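FORM 7B - TANDEM STRUCTURE REPORT

SECTION 1: FIRST PROTEIN
SEQUENCE AND TOKENS:
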Amino acid sequence: MTSILMYSVRPDEQEAIQAWAQANDIQVDTTDHDLGMNTVDMIKGYDGIVIQQHAALPEPELYQRLKEYGLKQLTLRITGYDIVNMQAARENGLVVTNVPAYSPRSVSELVLAQVMRLVRHLGEASAREAKDDYTWDGLQAHEIHNLTVGIIGAGKIGSAVARIFRALGSTVIANDPVHRPELADTLDYVDLPTLLKRADIVTVHTPLDETTHHLINAQALEAMKPSAFLINAARGPIVDTPALIEALQTKSIAGAAIDTIEGEAGIFEKDLSGTKVDNQALETLKAMPNVEVSPHIGFYTDAAVTAMVNISLYDVKTILEGGTSEHQVD
């Protein structure tokens, strides 16, 4: 019987995994460990592998081990594949796949929630209430239909974000090299400088690569309106974190919401109660009442979890049977 090992499996994924395994007559075993040099030997004897983690996999030896064990693929049940050493994967004949669209609405709905909290100044109101200050000064909000939402990266997730805000009456603009005709009644495409200058909400939905690393830097933040808010529910390093903190402290922008941040590996999804978190930038942002922080949970809905499990396992099955996955990233 074909066998697959899934790394970094959470309890909430087990029901979907077991249902898929039974329906496809394939053995699927799981571990809560990340893949790494100290756990790669666990894959020995299996036909396929699925991972989901924040920790990077740079070591060429790890990919050599996977090849030695007869693996043909390395499947991620997440969208971001920047953790993979693509050159080492290629050199060892490993097909890398991801899940590019598990549930675009899951992320877009989190963005909506973050935007509404920021626009209505709910974080600042809560901070005052904690001190029994119930004054209104500075809490007057704009109505969302009067705002312009700028989307950087209007792919599957960005398109879902665009449709939600357009339905609420907002003006929506986007910057993306691909202009999708199906979005003609939803948004207008503009260049990046124009988007940064015009948008009241700037929300990022691009993949992380060499062209988007620190795309939102000091210059980009300076180009935004002082009344604008930044949302990052994509990948942490797309935003230059020290530059973001500086922009917030100097009031170059009005606030921000981050679901992902540089250096989140080993922090987000972990219970670090009673310990010192090794990310001072994160601690600084958490202390700001005009900043919303969530621990990379944009994807975390019931529909998305099931889709991530099913799509990734079908990709493994397809490759093991000699087919080509439509989700191959290289």
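SECTION 2: SECOND PROTEIN
SEQUENCE AND TOKENS:
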Amino acid sequence: MAGIMYGIGVGPGDPELMTLKAVRRIREMDVIAIPHSDKNICTAYQIAKAAVPEIEEKECLYLPMPMTKDKKVLEDSHESAAKAVMERLDRGENVGFITLGDVTIYSTCSYLLERLWKEGYATRLESGITSFCAVAARLGTPLVTGAQELHVIPASYQIKDALKLPGVKVLMKAGRQMKAVKEEIGAGGFEAVMVENCGMSDERVYHSLGEIPDEAGYYSLIIVR
């Protein structure tokens, strides 16, 4: 029988925020797939290793995912990664694809799932704690209450209209566009807080829009009210 691919969310950064199920699944896997060419600099792998040292005994399947909006480049990399996973599944091996945060929120794993489903392979998804929930907890404040709406927005795309939505806005992966994102937030008269690298050793917290720098890392998350 063919193996099963498991998408495993490892949480936002703090290894203690990994779920018991994620830890167990990693221990059970025949192969660990990572969206990188080097496990030593793959953030998801380093998080998992801190919680599950036994992962070092597992074989790694390297599936580099380029950070680009070039559709052709993305399509080729996703297709190549899916084929590599299917080869392992055809051997009867179970593959665990580890991903930051939750496996259903802007995860590279989703591009593989579509291709595996089309070919009839079995998959399972194991939830992880999302970065925006971890950031709200780190700031010691509820994310939403009562009838407030919550909107999760990829900040690397046009956000002007999204900021006009009612309720609380979460801007994910804002780092590369930080200066422009700050300008849009300021122009709308909104309040904003940000945590960069939440739960990691180099975590930084910014309590107002004025504190947020014009340049920040990729794992920067802003909450706008």
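SECTION 3: OBSERVATIONS ON SECOND PROTEIN
Strands lie at 4-9, 31-34, 59-62, 95-99, 122-126, 150-154, 168-172, 192-196, 204-206, 220-224.
The first strand starts at residue 4 and ends at 9.

SECTION 4: SIGNATURE
Preparer initials: ____
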